[in-house]
Amino acid sequence: MIDMHNHILRYVVKLPVHPTEPNMETAVRMAQIAQEDGIRTIVSTPHFRPERLGDQAAEMYEILHSAVDTLNAALKERGVDVEVLTGAEVAMSELLPELASQGLLPTLAGGRYVLIELPGASYAAYAEEVLFKLQLQGYKPLIAHFERLADAPVKHISPRILQERGIRLQVNCESLMGRRGRSVQDLAQRLLHDDLVWALGSDAHDPEKSPPRLTPCRGAVERAGGAGTFERITDKRPATIIGRKSG
Length: 247
Ligand SMILES: [Fe+2]
Description:
The protein is an alpha/beta fold. The protein is built from ten helices and nine strands. The strands form two sheets. It has a six-stranded parallel sheet with strand order 3-5-6-7-8-9. A three-stranded parallel sheet has the order 1-2-4. Helix 8 (182-193) packs across helix 9 (218-225). The protein is globular, with a radius of gyration of 17 Å. The structure holds fe (ii) ion. Fe (ii) ion is lined by residues 5, 7, 89, 203. Residues 5, 7, 89, 203 line the site of fe (ii) ion.
């Protein structure tokens, strides 16, 4: 399985703007939990918020790549059979096209897909325009935990229209487990039912409260999307996003 959304990197290095005290043992523990769950690939997606990063964007871009090398070396040394790939959870911003043209937009596994978090608190009229501009620049947006917009004013961006424009959607396991409330869970189920989901994520932030596991929501995924859906969104489709063979 491929975990498309994971904050393990905060324990490897002190990240600008969102510092957590690094602790490699915690990062290794998270990777072990993922391995026990059947996850072989973790896409590392620390928050990348251009408005807050300001002139630290280039530094953050560099760190989120180098820290993945550090983490993979530590996992190899300890015999943990999980590969971590580079990426970021990029906050929607009018600055994204400019960062992209500077080569500072972190993509998933170094490919063309970018995990983008849409603003939940207020409707951003510019969001659709920015997504379109990025597509013109050759990038492929993957919207992070789209179901969490269930109660947001931005929800009138129709998931089906996004799909028709080639924009993909990622859903969080915890949403399907009901941990973000009923309306978020309902939207996640509807997206699965309508076959609009391209990747599943643990959105893991730590080993205890939000661990990197995907199998706990296997039943919920299959109930909403039918047999074969879980494999499709934890293996086949995410493999195409990160440019790997599935299985
Ligand atoms: Fe996240």
